[in-house]
Amino acid sequence: MKTNQEYKNAALSVLNGNWAPVVVATIVMYIVTFVIQLFTPFIFLLVDPDTQLLLSTVLYIVTMVIPMFVITPLSVGYYNALNKLYLAGDDKVTSNMFKIGYSRVLRYVGGMLLMGIYIFLWMLLLVVPGIIKAIAYSLTPYILKDYPELSVNQAINLSVKMMKGHKMRYFLLTLSFIGWGLLGILTLGIGYIWLTPYMYTTTAAFYQDVKNEYIANGNML
Prior knowledge:
Elements: H1 4-15, H2 19-39, H3 53-88, H4 93-101, H5 105-125, H6 127-136, H7 140-146, H8 152-162, H9 167-175, H10 178-186, H11 192-216
Helix pairs in contact: 1-11, 2-3, 2-4, 2-11, 3-4, 3-5, 3-11, 5-6, 5-7, 5-8
């Protein structure tokens, strides 16, 4: 297994020369997310809940569903587009983000929703177990794409198996970006246009290393 610094160096090596398509994809993702989150709630204001209860209820559900079916697959597509860039040097990050994300919308929404429910239930017990489980589930977006033959629950369970013995390393890898995160805040969020792809390309490097080790140990996928 590589060190966390080696994952970050590998990510930077891939990103050098590919910052333009990566930054464009990141901006597109942020714009879509912002627009959906900004305007979706206004749908609920179209009716008077006191006079049209049924319609207002339907619209309320719509305000919950639209972000889920737009933002969730787009996020999964973004993670895997960067993974594809890291693995194969494919710099069509924006088109890959949409192509991957919306190729299996129900699968990605279902998988991420179920993962979120599991994390929420663990959080009800204690915060620390919830954080540990969130880390254990962190490879799920990649597994959902790489292994379509698995059910969403099997994909989540596979993430748990692959992360066994690696959760602390992943936690420390995440912590290593805190300084950059603070710098991003000082730049009024502009720095996140570069930090976000850096983080997730690093995560892709971590995922590939963990997956290769899992397979090398004779485990079945």
